[in-house]
Design goal:
The protein has 345 residues and is of the alpha/beta class. Helices cover 28% and strands 22% of the residues.
């Protein structure tokens, strides 16, 4: 198969021929029709993720495609099925999975991290009966692939973790793929959204996604600006980027008894959090990590009904040959970049 791979962290990302994967007895191999470009893959390429232990490595974890082959133990799927997967692939048998919380599975695997990912023509997925999600016939592969990490993560962060309610103020720090998804979902719930970013292009896309108030994060104290715009602070604030600065600003953007949701990854150095404010104002600090396959139907139904439009967040489509360069320069193009291994692009 053709795939994009690297031989050292931070090294060249090149397109090469690699062996085709074979399905595990409980797994499946998916022929990739679309895969998203995500900052998490950039972190992996930089060596920030301890799950990447063997090089060379193929990145990519947001995907949609067609089942190519299944293992002997798989009961619910056959070749030819149109599918997507959560970026957290669960084992189905640990205590967390038995409680229905597959997104925090104790033995989770993740394509692009624990094994070769979807910047390739083929990718293997573990525990297919737990992790594959059937696609509506009318949904494009590009739309489906955009759900796998950013949109599904944002959906659960807004709808289930933060429990955003109509009329609440929601501040979103970082208007990349995760942030734009969160803005669209919060707006659909009936919230009033403040978008925070340092890029004018990103803030423009945030307006298209439904944000009504905007803060240029490069122009000063963004938390103070959010509190002023919302007359006391946001009810919910989401760090969709993942940096010490945006995490602290998100917490400081809240009103009393507000909810901070951390979605963006925070690798490396310790992150200072204003805990005095957390205690004095009884703030809640919440983490959100993907969404289980069994929770997809509600999100898919809202997309089918035209309430949510994740396809509008895709601003660029490229082929595998351009995927390495795009990953190395992630953040230079606003919106979501979609890679189509077989074209057109």
């Amino acid at each position: 198969m053709r795939a994009v791979a690297y031989d050292e962290f931070g090294g060249e990302l090149d397109l090469r021929e690699l062996p085709d994967p074979a399905p595990a007895p409980h797994g499946a191999v998916i022929r990739v029709e679309a895969t998203g470009l995500c900052r998490s893959d950039w972190h992996g390429w930089q060596g920030h993720d301890p799950d990447i232990r063997v090089l060379p490595h193929v990145p990519g974890h947001e995907l949609a495609g067609v089942v190519e082959a299944v293992g002997a133990e798989v009961r619910g799927w056959r070749p030819g099925a149109r599918v997507t997967v959560p970026f957290v692939c669960a084992c189905g048998s640990c205590a967390a999975c038995q409680a229905g919380e597959q997104q925090v599975c104790e033995r989770q695997t993740q394509p692009g991290f624990t094994h070769w990912g979807s910047f390739a023509e083929l990718v293997s997925i573990d525990h297919a009966d737990v992790n594959l999600v059937a696609l509506p016939e009318e949904m494009s592969y590009a739309t489906a692939a955009s759900l796998g990490c950013r949109f599904a993560t944002s959906f659960r962060a807004v709808d289930q973790v933060a429990e955003v309610r109509p009329g609440e103020w929601v501040a979103v720090h970082g208007c990349g793929g995760v942030g734009l998804s969160a803005i669209m979902i919060a707006t659909a719930v009936g919230a009033r959204v403040v978008a925070v970013d340092i890029s004018g292009d990103a803030l423009h896309l945030a307006e298209l996604a439904g944000a009504t108030h905007f803060v240029d994060g490069s122009a000063g104290d963004s938390a103070t600006q959010v509190r002023e715009l919302t007359r006391g602070g946001a009810h919910v604030s989401i760090d969709a980027l993942g940096s010490p600065r945006t995490c602290a600003a998100s917490v400081e953007s809240l009103r009393r008894r507000g909810r901070h949701v951390q979605v963006g990854l925070l690798p490396g150095a310790a992150t200072p959090v204003p805990m005095g404010r957390v205690i004095a104002q009884e703030l809640r600090l919440l983490g959100s990590h993907g969404m289980a396959a069994h929770a997809y139907p509600r999100m898919l139904e809202l997309i089918r009904a035209g309430v949510l439009h994740p396809d509008q967040l895709v601003t660029r489509t490229i082929g595998l040959a351009d995927a390495g360069k795009a990953l190395a320069s992630i953040g230079s193009v606003a919106g979501v970049t979609m890679i189509m291994p077989r074209g057109p692009f």
